[in-house]
Amino acid sequence: MISPPRFWSAKEGRHHPLALLLSPLGGIYGAAVARKLAKSVPEKAPIPVICAGNITMGGVGKTPFVAELASRLSAMGHTPFILTRGYGGSLTGPVRAAPEHTAAEIGDEARMLSCDHPVIVSRDRVEGAKLAHDEGASAIVMDDGFQNPGLHKDVTFLLVDGETGLGNGRIFPAGPLREAPHAALTRAAALVIVGGREEHQPPHLPESALPVMRMRLESVVPLERLGQPAHAFSGIGRPEKFFKGLETAGVELLERTSFPDHHMFTEEEIARLIARAAADDAQLLTTEKDFARLSPDQADGITPIPARLTLDNPALLDQFLASLPEPVR
Asked: SUPFAM superfamilies attached here (predicted)?
């Protein structure tokens, strides 16, 4: 995935010349999405489906939130399966993720999530839900799929970046939006604001009566790593968040290298990163999501840094999960 253009940002504004030029195409794109959603009749699975999605292109923190949903459902006695498209992978599915699957086959998110939870990869979400049910799932956590009308969702959480919000507020390709915000809000049960200041309303996010939770992600750096200089690299939606998190945790960051989201690293790129870190006698750090895309040979000598998720109102999340409909026997 390519990096988003600068004129998509809230800082550049709605009136950037390119945003204005592309605005008619955004209207066409938005109308097509609305028409698709309006005409579709979602198929209801025999088990409850919880969706975590967003309305902007790029990453916002869905993957750790999906893992949190699965963990909380497990604690409640459910057998949750995560259902994902497997973005960046070659397999169309439906297939259950297995340890021998690589990120090139099932995508980095599916590979990372499958370390802790059962994961079904399927471009066809309805067929994926059927496989999850057949494999023994009592609930499905759908990673993304907010604009996918094929499968009925019992509860949908809409994630919004607390800093960048909805960017310049325009629909693709004039901006980062996948659809009109007001229409999206009508399909959500709650908003999850990821990062940002608590008193700050994310840019271009309409006022809403939806319940709101705030979520934060913090880098968990092992104590033995804090006293050493470091280089870091990342190819996620917003790599600068990872770099800032390392510095906040106390890492002396000498060099940072950004790649496009879901970037598949070449042997030459990794060798170059390792050589530069060695020249500075520095450790080489990356995210767990990036680490999932490395081969065993590439991963040697690179430290993945996990992220810790915190919610300001976990009881509200548990309330939604506890109210899920019973599976159909």
From this structure: P-loop containing nucleoside triphosphate hydrolases
